[in-house]
Design a protein that fits this description.
The chain is mainly alpha-helical and about 140 residues long. The chain has six helices and no strands.
């Protein structure tokens, strides 16, 4: 499972980052919600692993990851019963929640890099008439604070 890769000893992940990036993009283009959540979980683990390191794979690809996470925030439709807004239980996250967690983790490592993108996303989407788009804009801004 892709999400287990960061937990492997001293694996030199940077040599595989381009291939992992391609897998990430392919996953986001698909409709398999479980795979998308696992992909966000993988990148979240990478962020947590690199949080206190001076050299970081996450810093080098923060802009690309933010674009993917922002797409993930609006990947699932928000139903009237709010099943996709709130996790059904503590162990199950929606794609939007997994993306929000990833944005938070990336901001810990590379806030200066991603803040302009988050601000632009908010300024572009918050004025929308649709409350769902406004909600996603608020999630993005809040996650990056």
């Amino acid at each position: 499972m892709l999400a287990e890769v960061p937990q492997v000893g001293n694996l030199q992940i940077s040599s595989y980052i381009e291939k992992i990036g391609m897998i990430t993009l392919q996953t986001m283009q698909g409709d398999n919600i479980t795979c998308i959540k696992h992909m966000f979980y993988f990148w979240t683990l990478m962020c947590r692993m690199e949080a206190n390191q001076t050299e970081s794979v996450i810093k080098s690809c923060a802009s690309s990851l933010i674009d993917i996470a922002l797409t993930g925030l609006s990947k699932e439709d928000m139903d009237a019963d709010e099943k996709t807004v709130q996790a059904i239980n503590d162990e199950e996250y929606t794609v939007a929640e997994a993306a929000e967690i990833l944005i938070t983790e990336i901001s810990i490592i590379a806030k200066d890099t991603i803040w302009p993108e988050l601000k632009k996303f908010f300024e572009t989407n918050f004025p929308a008439a649709d409350w769902r788009i406004q909600y996603v804009a608020m999630l993005a801004l809040n996650a990056g604070l």
